[in-house]
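Below is our example:
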Amino acid sequence: MKENIVIIPTYNEIENIEAIIRKVFSLSEFFDVLIIDDGSPDGTGMKVKELQAEFVGTLHLIERSGKLGLGTAYIHGFKWALENKYQYIYEMDADFSHNPEDLVRLFNACKIENFDVAIGSRYIKGVNVVNWPIGRVLMSYFAGVYVRLITGMEIMDPTGGFICYKREVLQTIPLDKITFIGYAFQIEMKFNAFLYKFNITEVPIIFTDRTKGVSKMSTKIFREAIFGVILMKIWSWFKTFKR
C-alpha cells in the first residue's frame, strides 16, 4: 500500500505549477503528486511533462480534453488513487491559496490522530483568509452557516477544498453518484462522509488568495452550492448509509 497522493486539478496554472510541485516534494513528509489538467492552453500540462523527467514515478499527470469541472477532476483523481493503492488522498489547489506545508498537518490528523477526514479549515479559529475582498469573505462564511443549518453538519468550513481522505472514505462514498462540480461538490463529499458516520476533523489553516493566475470562481458555481445543499438534504431522506 502506498501512502500519500496529492491531487491538484489545473487549468491555466503555468505561473504556479512548477513552484507548487517543487514545494510539495520538498516537505518533510513524502507525498506523490497527481496533476489533472483540463487541456490548459497556456502549457501547464507540458510543464508537468517536463518535470516528470525529474520526479520519475512520483509526479503523475492525467490530461483531459477541456474544462470538465472541478468535481469531475477530483472524482477522476480519487478513482486513480484508489486503483493505485494510496492510503491517504488529498485535495489541494495549484495557486498557493493552500499552503503545501499544511499537508503534513492534515496527514498527522489522519495518520496519528486517526481521523477519517481532515479538512484544512479557514473558519475553525476565527476568519483566517488573506487578500479576499470583504464581500467574498462574508459570502463564504455565511455559506457555511447556511450549509450547517440545512445539513446538520457541524463543519465550520464545508466549502473548503484542502482535504485529506483516508482511502476507506472514498471506497465507501458512491463516487459515481456525486453530481456537483464547484462549491457544491465540496459540500456533497463532506455531507456523504458525515452521513456514513466517518470521523471528521478541521485543522486550522490560513487561506491566502492567489497572487498569480486567474480565479475560477463564478456566480454560477456559487448558485449551484445554494440550491445544491437543499437537493442534497432532500436526497438524503431517501437513501441508506451503511458501511
Notes: Strands lie at 2-10, 32-37, 59-63, 86-91, 117-121, 129-130, 163-166, 200-204, 207-208. The chain has a mean pLDDT of 91. The domain at 2-236 is CATH 3.90.550.10 (Spore Coat Polysaccharide Biosynthesis Protein SpsA; Chain A).
